[in-house]
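Side project, low priority. Logging it here so it doesn't get lost.
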Amino acid sequence: MAAQTRYSKIAIVLHWTIAVLIIGLIIFGLLMTNPNTPNRFVLYQLHKSFGIMVLLLSIFRLVWRLLHRPPALPKDMEKWEILAAKFTHIAFYVIMIGMPLLGWAMVSASPLPIPTELFWTIAWPDLPFIPESKDLEETFEFLHGNIGKLTIGLILLHFGAAMKHHFVNKDNVFVRMMPWVKKRG
């Protein structure tokens, strides 16, 4: 049996869909927290809607990942690189699931009676175990915003590592998640 050299099509679609959603969420987050941005309320609602999509897709992606082994890393990778790759992937899963949960907890704690409606059609409930509290809302907001900033750094690290593998190491690590890029060797 030949060794698997790429991620499955489902893993690739999930990776890129979630990546685009997260980048969009970061952009929406920066715009909606700027008081000069027009239609901020619309951006908040879209941010919440796409955040719940990331949560649901990420849970599915985690289950998929646990049931489907990824392609092996190159045998010549340094031990520190393997550890960094594992840490980065674990951190992404924590963020992809934790950030939407923090956002959901934040709106659940808010004393303002603003309902969450996914794409203005599906009523989304508050978390029942989160009490209304301005202090709690501010704590969740602080965590959500600052972990969002760390997420930008993690994305840049991930992208930089992929580029290093492709252009410096000239291996197939980058190609494993890129179906439109030709495999080397």
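Brief comment: Strands lie at 116-118, 122-124.
Revisit when time allows.
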